[in-house]
Amino acid sequence: MKNGQPPEDENSDQDPHTVESLGVTSYGASTRAPRGDYSRNGQVKADYTCAQDYAGYTEADHDTYRRLHARQSALLVGRACDEFITALPALDQSGRAAHRIPRFDDINERLFKATGWQLVAVPGLIPEVAFFTLLSQRRFPVTDWIRTPQEFDYIVEPDIFHDLFGHVPLLFNPVFADHLQAYGAGGLKAHRLGACEQLSRLYWYTIEFGLIQQQGQLRAYGAGILSSSGELVHALSSQAPQRIALALLRAMRTRYKIDSYQQTYFVIDSFSQLFDMTAPDFTPFYRQLKNMSELAADASLAEDERMSPRLN
Predict the structure, then answer these.
(1) How confident is the model at residue 36 (pLDDT cuts 50, 70, 90)?
(2) Which is catalytic among the residues 162, 179, 231, 234?
(3) Is the per-residue pLDDT at 26 higher than 60?
(4) Does the active-site annotation cover 167?
(5) Active site (annotated) includes residue 208
(6) Is 227 a catalytic residue?
(7) What is the pTM (predicted TM-score) of this model?
(8) Best label site of 67, 205, 236, 268, fewest CB within 10 Å?
(9) Residue 80 forms beta bridges with which residues?
(10) 6 lies in a domain?
(11) CATH number at residue 148
């Protein structure tokens, strides 16, 4: 998820696209300044979108994307949810994306026909309100820079591979696409109610790092898992993290970190369950949360319904 602190006050004379104006990112326990060029010689718009700098990609960048794509694709069968496996080919009908960084315009032509969504380039992490606004408009923000070869195995912030490979395939699924737009509208409401952090945690533990039970075993549907070889194995098979049946208030109380594998994963039985759970008005939940303490990322509660890791 590309969210940071809410935008600066409208009366501020600070450039809204400087790293300083974005502040410390609020998703997770991190004090790192957002990465990315937020100036681009004035080419970043007020909503933080910009043109994809395709000419700026080097052959080394394309090679990094190719190797990431090949490694991750080989790990998906039996580990990724069925819906993701079904949707993935729509991301690259020409076969070129397996070898070079895709052009957003090429994907947008197919994506808009499928679900009415469009990809928009952004320079990196963007504020919560800007992020949720774009989702509510069926515009998905995609970071347009790619990690360095030294970051091949792990990167803290989302890059273009995470966003394209991890998030975009399920945007071709009409039901999931509608769900994500509703998330955006819900995020704007949460901001008005002072509950952005709570909703962001739910987004993190579902859209980014969610697990699902399918065909009698755990599988991944969260983009942060599906785009990371290490996290995919850790989330499904490691004995280290805890896996808990999703409960809304539990997830919205639980903090998380962005610079390590997750310590807790929340599991759903089906996407229908997730959509039904998140359909009601969250206002009563936000009221309840004001009287509930936050939980550490590795917190364990007696009422948690725990699940065992996969055997392979």
Answers:
(1) confident
(2) 162
(3) no
(4) yes
(5) yes
(6) yes
(7) 0.88
(8) 67
(9) 220
(10) no
(11) 1.10.800.10
